[in-house]
Amino acid sequence: MTSEGVGPGTVRPGGRTARVRTAVLRAAGDVLAEHGLAGLDLADVARRAEAGKTTVYRRWGTPANLVADLLTDMAEQSLPRTETGTLLGDLRANARLVQRTLADPRQGALFRAVIAAATCDREAAAALRRFYDVRVTEWEPCARQAVERGELPEGTDTREVIRAVSAPLYYRLLTTDEPLDEAAADRAAEAAVAAARAGVFTRE
Predict the structure, then answer these.
(1) Does any domain span residue 38?
(2) Per-residue pLDDT tens over the stretch 153-162
(3) Which of 9, 26, 151, 177 could form a disulfide with 146 if both were Cys (CB 3.0 to 4.6 A apart)?
């Protein structure tokens, strides 16, 4: 999740360096889920990861850089898109993936913390945008293929279709205490498909 760290498409470090990064990012995620950005202390992360404080401070430097690298790692580890042959099937698979992630106690808390961090830290905000750009890029072909099949109007903004699927799920996560279940995911997918078919996402 950094601009200075390892990004998608770059060669990941191997051996001990990779093991240290994995342990540190896991520990950082745990701290964020438990205490939010305010509780993200590099020394505490190093202790939890059983890594040297000097190594952690030299490699990441600040909590924001650590959050950014965590987001990069999350984007790299995210599951690939599902192709069912229909737009509704594809977007329902996307919505259910988002729903399972956000409904998970650790992952849901982690995303709340990262989103909160992005509201007050420029590095975290940039990293969050990169994370979602990677995910939208992964799933965008589902909508593009629907245009090619004639399921959606020509000129549809296919990236906006993908964003429209997850937006209601994040809204529910952040603004209500209502359960984030598969029914909510399916409604989000169905609403995005209906809007896309109606031309809501067609560019002028």
Answers:
(1) yes
(2) 999 999 999 9
(3) 151
190/164 Cα distance (integer angstroms): 10
Residue 97 lies in a domain: yes
202 inside domain: no
What pTM does this model have? 0.81
Q: Convert the pLDDT of each residue in 170-188 to its tens digit.
A: 999 999 989 899 999 999 9
* 46 assigned to some structural domain: yes
Shared domain for 102 and 160, answered yes or no, is yes
Instruction: Identify any residues that bridge with 156 across adjacent strands, giving them in sequence order.
Output: 202
Report yes or no: 161 and 201 within 8 Å, Cβ to Cβ: yes
**Are 69 and 90 contained in the same domain?**
no
Q: What are the strands, taking DSSP E only, across the chain?
A: none
Both tokens assigned to 153: 């109007």
Q: Which of 151, 26, 139, 55 is nearest to 92 (CA)?
A: 139
CB 172 within 8 A of CB 178: yes
Query: Do 148 and 183 belong together in one domain?
Result: yes
Angle between helices 87-103 and 158-175 (to 10 degrees): 30
Q: Which of 93, 115, 90, 100 is nearest to 180 (CA)?
A: 100
